[in-house]
TrEMBL record:
Cellular component terms per the entry's GO annotation: type II protein secretion system complex
Signal sequence segment: none
Keywords per UniProt: Membrane, Transmembrane, Transmembrane helix
Transmembrane segment boundaries: 20-37
SUPFAM superfamilies referenced in this protein's UniProt entry, alphabetically: RuvA domain 2-like
Record-level GO BP terms: protein secretion by the type II secretion system
Protein name per the record: Helix-hairpin-helix domain-containing protein
Pfam families for the chain: HHH_3
InterPro entries the record matches: Endo/Exo/Phosphatase_dom_1 (IPR051675), RuvA_2-like (IPR010994)
Length: 308
């Protein structure tokens, strides 16, 4: 019996080592719990449903922030830890680390903000502070009313935008023989180059005889002309000191036709080819027998042609 009793209390060397290790772990856990403090030096503000809890605790909400650092919440209330701090108007783009500390932000959040600004980051509106990594929603809600960003323009509502969004005015109708370059440039589809070409062409021919003649300007496409045509008018005849010499369609060479800028070169070539195939024209109206010379083209060139 005596031998059996000792057998129950006997430990091998391995068992003794395991027991010692377990005992050391228990001692370390007890020591760590004793010395561990979850909070820093700053006191914590414990927030619940503010209106109800402040009324229950009879805390004066008009007193300084330092006097409102903590109170005992009622049972079952939601507890959120936020660092206490003094609230004041500030610009997050210029406030120093000490200023953020005074607001009650943690060192890690302050470092994130300073680092963000150092890399070129900028807060454009108060709500941008919500983007700071680690900043709690409750902290952002507490700070946003005090944020004042230098140079921030007041925001406009959709109603304000609707009142200030005026439609572009229609281009003014211009006089084709007197309009300066600036008025031509104001027309849709007409830029600096075309405006200069139109005016130079008008001066070269001594003035337009019709609105349609504007279309003869080099580089002015049919589609562009159709866009500006409603804004063109010819209220006065072109000012000419010397009327252009009329071209004899039965004898003129291509170079002679070219001397009159009112007659397009393709029209001149067609007249010469038709004349060589069918003989002389008996009247100016005979050029309408050429396939592509319609009434509009005829009206344009007829004043500058003759058969005599």
């Amino acid at each position: 019996m005596r031998t059996d009793w000792k057998a129950y209390l006997a430990f091998s060397k391995r068992d003794r080592n395991v027991a010692i290790i377990l005992l050391l772990l228990i001692v370390l856990i007890i020591i760590s719990v004793f010395y561990y403090h979850p909070s820093g030096n700053q006191p914590l503000v414990i927030i619940t449903t503010l209106d109800q809890e402040l009324a229950k605790q009879k805390i004066d909400t008009t007193s300084n922030a330092d006097e409102q650092i903590a109170y005992v919440p009622s049972e079952g209330s939601e507890v959120i830890n936020i660092r206490a701090g003094e609230l004041f108007q500030f610009d997050p783009n210029t406030l120093t680390a000490a200023g953020f500390k005074q607001l009650g932000l943690q060192d890690k959040i302050i470092h994130t903000i300073i680092n963000y600004r150092g890399k070129g980051g900028h807060f454009w509106k108060p709500e941008d502070v919500r983007k700071i990594y680690g900043l709690q929603k409750e902290d952002a809600d507490r700070l946003i009313p005090y944020i004042h960003i230098a140079g921030l323009q007041p925001t406009f509502t959709q109603k304000d935008k609707a009142q200030t969004n005026y439609p572009n005015p229609k281009p003014a109708v211009i006089e084709i023989n007197t309009a300066p370059i600036e008025q031509w440039k104001a027309l849709p589809a007409i830029g600096d180059a075309l405006a200069n070409r139109i005016v130079k062409f008008r001066d070269k021919i001594g003035g337009f005889t019709s609105v349609a003649q504007v279309k003869q300007t080099y580089g002015l496409s049919d589609s562009a002309f159709r866009v500006i045509e409603p804004y063109l008018q010819m209220a006065s005849a072109p000012q000419k000191n010397i009327p252009p010499e009329k071209i004899n369609i039965n004898t003129a060479s291509l170079n002679q036709f070219k001397s009159n800028s009112h007659i397009p070169e393709e029209i001149a070539q067609a007249i010469i080819i038709y004349r060589s195939q069918h003989g002389n024209f008996s009247s100016i109206e005979d050029i309408k027998k050429i396939v592509f010379i319609n009434d509009e083209i005829y009206t344009q060139v007829a004043p500058y042609l003759t058969i005599e």
